[in-house]
Design brief:
The chain is mainly alpha-helical and 335 residues long. The chain has a single domain, classed as Ribonucleotide Reductase, subunit A (Orthogonal Bundle), CATH 1.10.620.20. It is built from 15 helices and no strands. α5 packs antiparallel against α6. The N terminus is likely disordered. The chain binds fe (ii) ion (FE2) (2 copies). Pfam families: AurF.
Length: 335
C-alpha cells in the first residue's frame, strides 16, 4: 500500500498506480478522439422523451430474437403463454440492462471520472466518463420505468433472480484475490461496452415489436455507439499503463469475460418453460436444439468480432495462453 489506493484495494492498486506507471518506460501515451462532441444535443437523456407503453396488444419483444420461440415444441404453446414468453424476455432484457449499468458499469466510469482508477488518461477522457455515467444512470432509469409499466399493464411481473452474468462474474472474481475485483470489473466493462451495441441494434431494428420498446432500445443503442468508441480507445490507455504481469492476467481473462457476458441462462429459460407446462423431456429437447454449441459459438464470434480486433491490436493474443483460451471459447478458429 503506497497511499494512492482509490477504488481498488491492496496489491491491485499496482495496476492503476501512477507511481508504478512512472516505472514503465517507452510506451507512448495513446491519443484520444472524443465521440461526445454532440452529446449535449444527441444524448438520449437530453433529447428523447419518456417512452410510454402505448399498447399491450403488440408483441413486447421481437419473437425472432427470443431463441426458444422458434422451436416447434414452444410453437405449440397456447397464445397467452407465447405472449408471456415474449414479455418475460423483455423483463429479462430490462433487468439485465439496469443491473449492468448500476451494479457494474457506473462504478467503473465513476472511477475513471473521479480519478480513483488511476490509469493515466487525457482530461477530456475523464470528463467524457462523467457523460457515460449520466447516460448509464438514464438507461437504468428508463429500463426500470418500462419494466414497471409492463408489469402494471399486463400483470406479468419479472421472474426475479439475479442476471446470469452477475452470478458468473461473482464466481469468476471469487477465483481470484479479492484485491483484483476492481480490475476484473474494469475489464468486464470494456467487454460489455464494446459488445453491447450489436445486441441492441438487433432489437432496435425490429419492426414487429411494440413501438415504445423499439424506441427505448434505439435510444440505448445510439448512446452505446458512443460508449463503444470510447472504450475501444480506453483499452489502449489501460494497456499502456499495465506491466507485463498485469497484461498477462488481463489477456487471459478476456475470453472468459466475453463468455460471461454472452452466455444465455439456459437453466432459467428451462425453468420458465416448465412453468408453462412443458415436460422435462420437452424442455431438454428445446434447450439442446436451441442452444447448440456451434450456433452459440458462431454468434459469439460475430458479436465479439470488433472487440477481438481491438484486443488483437493491443497485442492481447501475442500471449500464447490468451490465444489458447480464445480458441477454447471458440472466439478464434482452433489451430
Ligand atoms: Fe447503457
Ligand atoms: Fe454504455
Amino acid at each position: 500500500m503506497c497511499g494512492t489506493v482509490g477504488l481498488f484495494t491492496g496489491c491491485a492498486a499496482a495496476a492503476f498506480c501512477p507511481v508504478a506507471a512512472l516505472r514503465r518506460d517507452g510506451a507512448a501515451t495513446p491519443g484520444y478522439r472524443s465521440p461526445f462532441a454532440a452529446w449535449d444535443r444527441s444524448a438520449s437523456v437530453r433529447s428523447s422523451p419518456r417512452r410510454v407503453l402505448a399498447s399491450t396488444e403488440l408483441d413486447l419483444f421481437p419473437e425472432d430474437l427470443v431463441p426458444v420461440a422458434g422451436h416447434p415444441v414452444v410453437g405449440r404453446l397456447r397464445p397467452e403463454l407465447r405472449r408471456r414468453l415474449l414479455t418475460q424476455q423483455l423483463h429479462r432484457y430490462l433487468g439485465f440492462t439496469a443491473k449492468l449499468e448500476y451494479l457494474v458499469v457506473n462504478h467503473v466510469v465513476l472511477g475513471i471520472a473521479h480519478g480513483s482508477i488511476e490509469v493515466p488518461v487525457p482530461d477530456e477522457m475523464r470528463f467524457d466518463a462523467l457523460r457515460i455515467y449520466t447516460d448509464e444512470a438514464y438507461h437504468a432509469l428508463f429500463s426500470v420505468d418500462l419494466g414497471r409499466q409492463v408489469t402494471a399493464r399486463t400483470g406479468i411481473a419479472p421472474r426475479g433472480g439475479r442476471p446470469f452474468f452477475l452470478v458468473r462474474l461473482d464466481a469468476l472474481k471469487a477465483r481470484h484475490d479479492p484485491s483484483l475485483a476492481g480490475l476484473v470489473d474494469l475489464l468486464f466493462t470494456i467487454v460489455s461496452e464494446t459488445l453491447i451495441s450489436a445486441t441492441l441494434t438487433d432489437v432496435a431494428r425490429s419492426t414487429s415489436v411494440e413501438p415504445s420498446v423499439a424506441a427505448l432500445v434505439r435510444d440505448h443503442a445510439v448512446d452505446e455507439g458512443r460508449h463503444h468508441a470510447y472504450f475501444a480507445q480506453y483499452l489502449r490507455h489501460l494497456w499502456a499503463a499495465l506491466d507485463a504481469g498485469e497484461r498477462r492476467f488481463a489477456a487471459c481473462l478476456f475470453p472468459e469475460l466475453i463468455d460471461v457476458f454472452l452466455r444465455p441462462d439456459t437453466a432459467d429459460v428451462g425453468d420458465e418453460l416448465l412453468g408453462y407446462g412443458l415436460s422435462r423431456d420437452e424442455v431438454n429437447e428445446v434447450l439442446a436444439d436451441t442452444f447448440d454449441e456451434q450456433v452459440r459459438a458462431s454468434y459469439n464470434r460475430a458479436t465479439a468480432a470488433r472487440l477481438l480486433g481491438y484486443l488483437d491490436d493491443v497485442g492481447v493474443f501475442d500471449d500464447p495462453r490468451a490465444l489458447d483460451l480464445a480458441r477454447e471459447h471458440d472466439l478464434v478458429p482452433r489451430a
